[in-house]
Amino acid sequence: MAKPIELTESNFDDEVINSDVPVLVDFWAEWCGPCKMVSPIVAELADEYEGKLKVGELDVDNNQQIAMKYGIRSIPTLLLFKDGDVAEMMIGAQPKNNIVDKISKYL
Predict the structure, then answer these.
(1) Of the listed 35, 46, 80, 99, which one is catalytic?
(2) Is 42 noted as a catalytic residue in this protein?
(3) Fewest CB atoms within 10 Å of the CB: 13, 16, 22, 41?
(4) Known catalytic membership, residue 21
(5) Which CATH fold topology does 5-104 show?
(6) Domain locations in the chain?
(7) Residue from 7, 23, 24, 32 carrying the catalytic annotation
């Protein structure tokens, strides 16, 4: 079973920017209630789209430079990267079908 990749400032470029498949990044924090609602959905997507979509989680408290670079002001925020650029942004807890709708057009 595939799991989301733990993203950090040291592996972000390799895992996300230089990825040859689209990447869904979950910007979250330990203290964030809505993030805990989204986390199981993100884990399901990592498993269901293994090989077609890379899924990662980035703790904004431990990786503030990246959060600032992408203008993350509220969490959870999901960014979908395609060819190193942000293709979609979803702010707040999203139902799974909304996330699937957004990512499916990039697969």
Answers:
(1) 35
(2) no
(3) 13
(4) no
(5) Glutaredoxin (3.40.30)
(6) 5-104
(7) 32
